[in-house]
Amino acid sequence: MSIEIDDAQGCRVPVEVTPGVLQVGIRFGARPEGLTWSCTPTAARELAAALVAAAGEAEMVSSADPVTVEANELRRGDVRDGDRVMTVESVRNDGATAHVTWKSGAGRSWTQAYAADAGITLRYRLRTED
Predict the structure, then answer these.
(1) pLDDT digits (tens, 9 = 90+) for 29-85
(2) Is the separation of the CB atoms in 75 and 69 below 8 Å?
(3) Rounded Cα distance, 34 and 49, in Å
(4) Deepest in the core among 21, 103, 121, 125, taking most CB within 10 A?
(5) What is the C-alpha separation between 53 and 112, in angstroms, rounded?
């Protein structure tokens, strides 16, 4: 089975998935030598389930228009608008202060304190199931 996905630069990359004897092969053809992985059928099912779950969350993302919320209304998964990706890991509200733990696209985490009513502009936020 072969599909194409976009890499980090937005280029189309062929991905080939092949069944083997008690393993599943996955080959990313971005480079001439490609990148090859293999895993057990169980791990392949777990990967598929994780991809399905992530696809569902991605589809729940609200519109591409930035939205501004108060710092005390931030929730896990919100993504701050700006040049660099910053995702909310956690928020702790302490009266007039919101302590927000951010995670960068590079994997670094830090905590910042904001006035609870400070406006934070988000690139997007996950919709809640009401």
Answers:
(1) 866 677 888 899 999 899 888 888 777 776 666 556 788 999 999 998 888 887 787
(2) no
(3) 24
(4) 125
(5) 30
> What is the Cβ-side half-sphere exposure of residue 87, based on CA atoms within 13 angstroms?
11
DSSP secondary structure, 93-109, as one string: EETTEEEEEEEETTS-E
pTM for the full model? Answer: 0.52
Strand ranges (E), the chain: 2-6, 12-19, 24-28, 35-39, 67-70, 79-80, 86-94, 97-104, 109-115, 119-124
Interval 6-19: pLDDT, tens: 776 777 788 888 88
Pairing of strands 109-115, 67-70: unpaired
What is the rounded distance in angstroms from the CA atom of residue 107 to the CA atom of residue 2? 30
Report pLDDT for 60: 64
CA-CA distance, 71 to 88, in Å (whole number)? 11
Residue 46 vs residues 13, 39, 52: alpha-carbon distances, Å: 22, 10, 10
